[in-house]
Amino acid sequence: MDNEKEASCCRMKEANYSRRLIMRQKYTNVQGLIEIIRERKSQGETNREIGTSLDLTLKQVQQLITRENRRERLLAQGCVLRPKGRP
Fold first, then answer.
1. What is the pLDDT of residues 56-73, one digit of tens each?
2. Distance CA 17, CA 30 (A)
3. Which of 17, 34, 38, 71 is exposed most, by the fewest CB atoms within 10 A?
4. Angle between helices 34-42 and 47-54 (to 10 degrees)
5. Domain spans of the chain, in order of start
6. Which residues contact residue 47 at a Cβ distance below 8 angstroms, ignoring those fewer than 6 apart?
């Protein structure tokens, strides 16, 4: 009897898992788009306009611009940029 209950629970878990909607994580390599974004910013487009046309969120565009500005500022100061992550 215990085996039957365990088996029914296992089937139940599998059934619940199969009914769940699995959302794919949206990932875009925005570093490859930096030149396009810089060009469009110089033309006077807003971050929101750039994001909607490139299928990015406003936050992705803002953070990319912030990272690039920081990188340029550090290079201008003469700092050596090192790759992130474990050596």
1. 999 999 999 999 999 999
2. 33
3. 17
4. 140
5. 2-77
6. 41, 58, 61, 62, 65
- More confident: 36 or 81: 36
Q: What is the mean pLDDT of residues 37-45?
A: 95
Task: Label each residue of the chain as H, E or C.
Answer: CHHHHHHHHHHHHHHHHHHCCCCCCCCCCHHHHHHHHHHHHHCCCCHHHHHHHHCCCHHHHHHHHHHHHHHHHHHHHCCCCCCCCCC
Q: Give the whole-angstrom CA distance, residue 34 versus residue 61.
A: 9
